[in-house]
Amino acid sequence: MNSQSLTYRSFVLRIWKERGGPSQAASVLRFSLEDAGTNVRHGFQNLDQLISYLQNEQGGQMLSDDAQ
């Protein structure tokens, strides 16, 4: 461990598949992310929205190579 203070957040990620309606042939994936500390839940219609949210929450640091 380094001398910097370590902080972390825990999330529960749920992924499920929704069937398309009669006019939609394919099903789509949906995502829900719940903060384990606050129980606040956010829903996302696609993976790009989920990743964007995580990057914004962590100031862009969580998913970058420099964060390690």
Largest sheet: 3 strands, antiparallel
* Span of the ends, CA to CA: 11 Å
Class per helix and strand makeup = alpha+beta
Average pLDDT for all residues: 82
* Percent of residues in β-strands: 25-35%
The 3D shape can be described as elongated
State the helix count: 1
- The poorly predicted ranges are none
Topology (elements, then pairings):
Layout (H helix, E strand, L loop, with lengths): L10 E8 L9 E8 L5 E4 L2 H11 L11
Antiparallel strand pairs: 1-2, 2-3
Notes on the protein architecture:
With 68 residues, the protein is an alpha+beta fold. It has a domain of 47 residues. 16% of the residues lie in helices and 29% in strands. It has a three-stranded antiparallel beta sheet with strand order 1-2-3, with helices on one face. A hairpin with a 5-residue loop joins strand 2 and strand 3. The longest helix is centred in the last third of the chain and has 11 residues. The chain starts with 10 loop residues before the first strand and ends in an 11-residue tail after the last helix. The mean pLDDT is 82.
